[in-house]
Design goal:
Number of helices: 15
Structural class: alpha/beta
Order of helices and strands: EHHHHEHHEHEEHEEEHEHEHEHHEEEHH
Number of strands: 14
Radius of gyration: 21 Å
Shape: globular
Length: 412
């Protein structure tokens, strides 16, 4: 038996998706373009400046993976002579470039159906849906009802929300219905209950997630979202890596928003945390508690939520460097027989147009005490990641994906 640690760096794509043009993302490259911006002095802020410095991720093979995925010259120049990890790239076969699709495919269940989406018009939500929500939730109306950035719409409508008591409804290019409300004035429990009501009502529309977005503050200048976000997701359409781990007697310790993404199916313990630093500390504690046969599955959300969607190149670069400094703490807690995989669920290129996710390949980086360093090429589905974890934990093979462990053994 062994332990497995699976980390999703939310939105840390590496370009090169063969179908990117179909999504309007031909040329998007999250890490590649951050490398370029940092080299040009365009990613400086109070926390960092100059070229991108990721020595620990580079040792795992991150820059090898970026170069492999997208033939990026800047990444090629940053590759160390000898990577110490197992490195490759993976491309997505799921129909979307959203959070559930990426995570579910990583866990062995590609999303081969089409999500429902709300149109990019005002109002974005059909009136019959709004009327049903008002009737079931006892509301006299709502604000927003359009595509918007979460921080922008709170700045725009937060004060009106405080005056009227009406929640703010909004959506994006993803399959989501998002609800922002003041955490104390509207009430956190009331917001969660409203999201549960909406979740039931949007099921016939095949909407992937309803997301509670609580905030605090008294005016436009002081409004701030809190860490009490909650995602209400539909169930995965088939048993995932998480289900299979639990069925075999192991535990799945979900760190950050992982539990919500999988609608808590196949999750033994949920350990919530807000922000990458807190998520990292929570993951280290989970590693201390993990036993043979267990999977610790963590999502580091700040890359996407704080920097990708907000097109903040400097913030994204600083967050990557902060995670790089944290990575040795994870490695120090690993035992012989353990496996660490670091990957992503999609891209969110902070240099790209708009504020949406970008269709990209993702890094597939692995490391474990005593495992040989080797390249594993470009994998044709994210599901290879989950199948590698399943193989490592001694689980039966799933319907999608192929483990890379045999290739690693041959490389040894």
């Amino acid at each position: 038996m062994a332990r497995a640690f699976l980390i999703v760096l939310d939105s840390v794509g590496i370009g090169g998706a063969p179908d990117a043009e179909e999504f309007g993302d031909a040329g998007a490259n999250t890490v590649g373009h951050i490398i370029d911006a940092a080299a040009a002095g365009e990613a400086d802020n109070a926390d960092r400046k100059g070229p991108l410095r990721l020595p620990n991720l580079a040792a795992l093979g991150l820059f090898h993976a970026v170069d492999l995925a997208s033939a990026h010259a800047g990444a090629a120049a940053l590759k160390p002579d000898d990577a110490q990890g197992i490195w490759g790239a993976a491309e997505e076969v799921s129909h979307g470039k959203d959070t559930p699709s990426g995570h579910w495919e990583i866990a062995g269940v590609p999303v081969l159906f089409d999500w429902g989406y709300f149109p990019h018009e005002v109002p974005a939500f059909p009136q019959d849906l709004l009327d049903a929500i008002y009737a079931k939730a006892g509301l006299d109306g709502s604000l927003g009802n359009k595509h918007a950035s979460g921080t922008d719409i709170i700045a725009e409508l937060g004060e009106e929300h405080l005056r009227t008591g009406q929640p703010i409804f909004y959506t994006s290019a993803d399959s989501v219905f998002q609800i922002a409300a003041h955490e104390t004035r509207f009430g956190l429990d009331r917001l969660y209950a409203l999201c549960e009501t909406v979740r039931d009502l949007v099921d016939p529309l095949n909407i992937g997630r309803v997301i509670a977005r609580p905030f605090v503050g008294e005016d436009r200048e002081s409004f701030e979202r809190t860490g009490n976000r909650r995602d209400y997701s539909v169930l995965p359409p088939a048993p995932t890596l998480l289900d299979r781990t639990v069925e075999a007697g192991g535990r799945v310790i979900a760190v950050g928003k992982i539990g919500d993404i999988f609608a808590h199916q196949g999750v033994s313990e949920v350990r919530k945390a807000s922000g990458n630093a807190a998520i990292g500390a929570t993951m280290l504690a989970a590693m201390d508690d993990a036993e043979d046969g267990d999977l610790v599955f963590a999502n580091f959300v700040d890359f996407d939520m704080l920097y990708g969607h907000r097109r903040n190149v400097a913030g994204y670069a600083a967050a990557l460097e902060a995670f790089d400094r944290f990575l040795p703490e994870i490695q120090a807690k690993m035992k012989p027989g353990d496996l660490l995989i670091v990957t992503a669920d999609h891209g969110c290129d902070p240099t790209w147009t708009g504020t949406d996710h970008t269709r990209e390949r993702v890094p597939f980086l692995a490391w474990g005490p005593g495992l040989p360093a080797t390249g594993i090429g470009i994998r044709k589905t994210y599901a290879d990641i989950g199948e590698t974890v399943a193989d490592h934990l001694g689980l039966p093979a799933g319907a999608d994906g192929t483990s890379v462990l045999d290739e690693i053994r041959v490389g040894a």
